[in-house]
Amino acid sequence: QVQLVESGGGLVQPGGSLRLSCAASGFTFRNYVLSWYRQAPGKERELVATITSSDRTNYADSVKGRFTISRDNAKRMAYLQMNSLTPEDTAVYYCNAIRNWGQGTQVTVSS
Description:
Oligomer: single chain
Order of helices and strands: EEEEEEEEEEE
Number of strands: 11
Distance between the termini: 40 Å
């Protein structure tokens, strides 16, 4: 059974940083694309970043230059480093693999 568990969210001030983590199990981790999504109040869930099995990455325009997605296949972990955070980044962030979702972790950017 695929399991994805996010962690690392919290409250940060504008301009601050957070690193989100996603612990994966139940599948051959290194073979699959990993993605981070987010859902803000009143908005649909949106794709933030993806990383392929060969470490190719893509980002939403809104986070390019600020966020970095990475993976550690040996640890079966995915990460999202978020820098220069703004209130518009406030959302629940979700890890996704093989059309499975984690439970989400709340990120709140506020002074």
